[in-house]
Amino acid sequence: MISIEEMLSISKNDLQEASKALDKADIPQLVDWLSLKDDNIRYQSFLLLQNRSTFCDDVYPFWDTFCDKLKSDNSYQRSIGAMLLAENVRWDQQDRINDTIFEFIKLLKDDKPITIRQCIQSLGNVALLKPGLNSIIADCLISFDIMAIKETMRKSILLDIINVLLIIRKELKTDEAENFILNALSGEILDKKSKKLIELELQRYA
Question: What pLDDT score was predicted for residue 39?
Fold first, then answer.
């Protein structure tokens, strides 16, 4: 079984290969380490589980554990829950995300802007893997109150939202989402470079 010392010695560039080489018996240990207070241990555990989830379904059985993290008092745990659920949606043949999505979306009102960002970015992954939820995700994102966020974070969060809407737009176009994007392009939150990139993307999938 992998030790903490062995885990921490894995470099960032080797994470993907290391995650492939994990023994199945290591998975419960890594999930347990997510709850430790040591940032280095829990972050490295998270990265290994996140990478493992992209090609193997043996992290998916901890779905309920990740769901519970969405309701944690700790913002780091809430973010971990959202991101690991989003990665494991690819293995969700039972469509458990259909029940989980509403708890997931509550993070859009989180008191930590970084958690809100990670929630939105994770919703992009859900939209890619479970297009049946695109309407629910889009409706929640276009109703997001960007002005309730502190000014320094508005641009980043607005871009996150638009990036997810652009993913959804390839499968589902709605007048409401189109208007949201157009209003963002005519507003003052985004800079010229960001607006140009969005316009190019809109043209690609016109």
Answer: 93
What's the pLDDT tens digit per position in 134-169? Answer: 999 999 999 999 999 999 999 999 999 999 999 999
Query: Total structural domains in the chain?
Result: 1
Assess if residue 185 is contained within a domain: yes
172, two tokens: 């589902």
pLDDT, tens digit, 9 for 90 and up, residues 85-119: 999 999 999 999 999 999 999 999 999 999 999 99
Beta carbons of 67 and 82 less than 8 angstroms apart: no
- Listed in sequence order, the DSSP H helices in the chain are 4-8, 15-21, 26-33, 39-53, 63-69, 75-88, 97-105, 113-129, 134-142, 151-169, 175-186, 192-204
**Chain position carrying tokens 């430790």:** 36
Domain assignment of residue 79, yes or no: no
DSSP state of 149: S
**For residue 126, is it within any domain?**
yes
> What is the span of the domain harbouring residue 124?
101-204
Q: Closest Cα partner for 129 from 68, 53, 70, 47?
A: 53
Let me know if residue 148 belongs to a domain.
Answer: yes
Distance CA 90, CA 101 (A): 14
Q: Would the pTM count as exceeding 0.85?
A: yes
